């Protein structure tokens, strides 16, 4: 069974929406997980509105209550039983996605 990742974003996508989409693109390319992007006008972070990331019908909740970290995403994959042997350095790659995003944010890139 192919696992599903759903990203709920505003239109146009902003900061966390962009980060979560980048996480999903990485997971799709490395693990073959099917992703979908849902546009929403409803602001409800980590729920049914934007920005949210849903894995196997479960909304991912950030440990810090604000933004999903690579560790949050990796832990959710493990908890969902997603097969990870094909991506032994997945956490490292998620951390790279996060680091690039934070650099862009600090450089004042507008999302």
Fold blueprint:
Layout: E1 4-9, H1 15-31, E2 34-39, E3 52-55, E4 58-59, H2 70-79, H3 90-106
Parallel strand pairs: 1-2
Antiparallel strand pairs: 1-3, 3-4
Helix pairs in contact: 1-3, 2-3
Short description:
By secondary structure, the protein is α+β, with helices and mostly antiparallel strands. It has 3 helices and 4 strands.
Note down, in words, how this protein is organized.
- This protein has 111 residues and is of the alpha+beta class.
- 40% of the residues lie in helices and 16% in strands.
- The protein has a 4-stranded mixed beta sheet, covered by helices on one side.
- Helix 2 runs antiparallel to helix 3.
- The longest helix has 17 residues.
Order of helices and strands: EHEEEHH
Low-pLDDT residue intervals, each spanning 5 or more residues: none
Mean model confidence by pLDDT = 91
Beta-strand percentage range:
15-25%
The span between the termini is 34 Å
Descriptive key words:
globular, alpha+beta, 4 strands, 3 helices
């Amino acid at each position: 069974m192919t696992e599903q990742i759903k990203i709920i974003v505003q239109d146009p996508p902003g900061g966390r929406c962009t980060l979560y989409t980048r996480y999903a693109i990485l997971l799709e390319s490395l693990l073959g997980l099917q992703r979908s992007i849902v546009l929403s006008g409803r602001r409800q972070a980590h729920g049914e509105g934007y920005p949210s990331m849903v894995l196997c019908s479960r909304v991912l909740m950030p440990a810090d209550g604000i933004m999903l970290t690579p560790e949050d995403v990796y832990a959710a994959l493990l908890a969902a039983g997603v097969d990870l042997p094909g991506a032994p350095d997945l956490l490292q790659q998620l951390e790279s996605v996060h680091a690039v995003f934070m650099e862009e944010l600090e450089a004042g890139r507008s999302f």
